[in-house]
Write a structure and sequence with these properties.
Strand content: 15-25%
Distance between the termini: 30 Å
Largest sheet: 5 strands, antiparallel
Number of helices: 3
Shape: globular
Order of helices and strands: EHHEEHEE
Oligomer: single chain
């Protein structure tokens, strides 16, 4: 009979939720992310940055997803020395494009203010990007956590 292992499992912490693709649910998404961060003892300026990025990514998904009656999924997980925030929607055809300046003639941006939020995402996160998955598009941002907040150096 093999000996029982006393090694602690190192599965990352993960939590996720879904909201309807509707602007009025964006504050609910932000509040849910804040709750997760509080439960995991992630606070201060870093929690503010993560909540701001979550709000931006969820707002973008709500605004740009062309799938009727879609749901937006938000996942937060601790990976090694950092936190990964993922926002997924079923519109795989519209990928995020950061703009440095708005183009008033852009037909996809009638308000002339698109893309600047991704500049904010880039500034507040360690890195960000997007993945096209089998049924969804996921826009993600990664944040470095302090050793107390992560499993790094434990």
């Amino acid at each position: 009979m093999p000996a029982l292992s006393t090694r602690r499992r190192t599965h990352p912490r993960r939590d996720s939720f879904r909201i309807p693709k509707c602007r009025r649910h964006v504050p609910e998404a932000r509040a849910n992310v804040r709750r997760i961060l509080k439960d995991w003892a992630v606070d201060g300026e870093l929690a503010d940055d993560i909540a701001t990025v979550a709000t931006e990514l969820v707002s973008n998904a709500v605004r740009h997803c062309r799938v009727t009656l879609a749901e937006i999924e938000v996942a937060v997980s601790i990976r090694g020395c950092g936190l990964l925030l993922e926002v997924s929607d079923p519109d795989r055809g519209r990928l995020p494009v950061p703009h440095t300046e708005s183009d008033p003639n852009d037909p996809n941006d009638p308000e002339g203010d698109g893309g600047r939020g991704l500049t904010l995402v880039r500034a507040l996160s360690e890195r960000w990007g997007h993945d096209v998955r089998p049924f969804t598009k996921c826009v993600w941002a990664y944040f470095v956590l302090s050793p107390e907040e992560s499993r790094c150096n434990r």
